[in-house]
Amino acid sequence: MSTMRAARFHAQKDIRVDEVPVPTPGNGQVLIDVAWCGICGTDLHEYLEGPIFIPQCGHPHPISGEEPPVVMGHEFSGVVAALGEGVTDLEVGDHVVIEPYIIRPDVNTGPNSKTYHLSQDMNFIGLGGHGGGLAEKIAVDRRWAHKISKDVPLDEAALLEPLTVGFHAVERSDVQHGDVALIGGAGPIGLLTAAVLKAQGVTVVMSELSALRRQKAIESGVADHAFDPRETDVVEEVKKLTDGRGADVAFECTSVQVVLDTLMDAVRPRGVIVVVSIWGHRSDFDIHKLVMKEIDLRGTIAYVNNHPATIELLESGKIDLKPFITGRTGLDGLVDEGFDTLIHRNETAVKILVSPSGEGL
After folding, report:
1. Fewest CB atoms within 10 A around its CB: which of 24, 177, 233, 279?
2. Any idea where the Enoyl reductase (ER) domain is (predicted)?
């Protein structure tokens, strides 16, 4: 049996590069040579605090049937290497990105569904099982493989997954062309949410501590204004920019209480706040202010039938993802170079990509 290298989560702070069998595509599946896989904040939380989305040892995931060790990585692009029986609408050599869901087979995931991402026991490829992008190859159901133009470089295509998170968050906000949006946090998700907003004709204001990330926001063109909240009264600046009205919409991308409080003050009456970040703790904000301003507070998680529209947006050239790729490494550098940088020096990086085969380095 042929083998390949894969980064697998064994336990908290224990990720190893193992030799595992090369998967074979089953009926209705495609085999993908992984080109690039991004390191996500969720991966860092699993490493430091997990398992969270990853199943507990002794408690296999109810859909995948897997428990640690599991292959990690859910933000990835690749090339179709083989087709399973019944797959006729892709060809070997096609470039694809993955919508990395693990969902019960009886759930409607058709093109009109708006809720499959909220279904019982939902999890993600690269966390809950079914392989992952931090491996040389992966077999996935055809439903979750989305063809992308070969004009889009595969490294940039690996950012399509977090870009789609931003796309869905913007969709949840009901923002309109010409509105003013405030984003709390210019990490990868904040920056990519800003990119979607700019592509839709929205004025974007960002609040961010990191000088590098503020610079990225301005130089990449995804933000019109980027403020350091330690030096600038963000609420007052937003009011100046909106003739005292306040932002029409705001996006919370940090899971930090003071940021959410700032957004509550900065949005206009009847404004919308979308909470994009994953909070590992309870929030404690001024609910009286929410009532008195009639603020609409909304949650968002991942994406649901958003990949086709996001791919179309990227292929149109309205979004440039190159500026957000700030590092590259192989599987052997995953923890010491990739994770370590993002955990201890995250102000110096945005998105670090991994080449599982090493061919991209």
Report:
1. 177
2. 11-354
Between the alpha carbon of residue 48 and those of residues 8, 11, 136, the distances in Å are: 14, 10, 24
Does residue 1 register a pLDDT over 80? no
Record the tokens describing residue 76, joined without a space: 């990835």
Q: What is the mean pLDDT of the chain?
A: 97
Q: CB neighbours of 62 closer than 8 A, spacing ≥ 6? A: 121
Domains of the chain: 3-159+321-355 (3.90.180.10), 162-299 (3.40.50.720)
Closest to 41 (Cα-Cα) out of 141, 168, 190 = 190
Percent of the chain with pLDDT over 70: 100
- pTM here? 0.97
The closest alpha carbon to 226, from 260, 199, 187, belongs to 187
Q: Tokens 């990395």: give the residue.
A: 100
- Coil, helix or strand at residue 73: coil
CA distances from 188 to 3, 26, 94, 134 (A): 33, 34, 27, 19
CA distances in angstroms from 157 to 35, 154, 351, listed in the order given: 10, 5, 12
Per residue in 214-231, pLDDT (tens digit) is 999 999 999 999 999 999
| Residue 15 vs residues 49, 130, 325: alpha-carbon distances, Å | 13, 17, 23
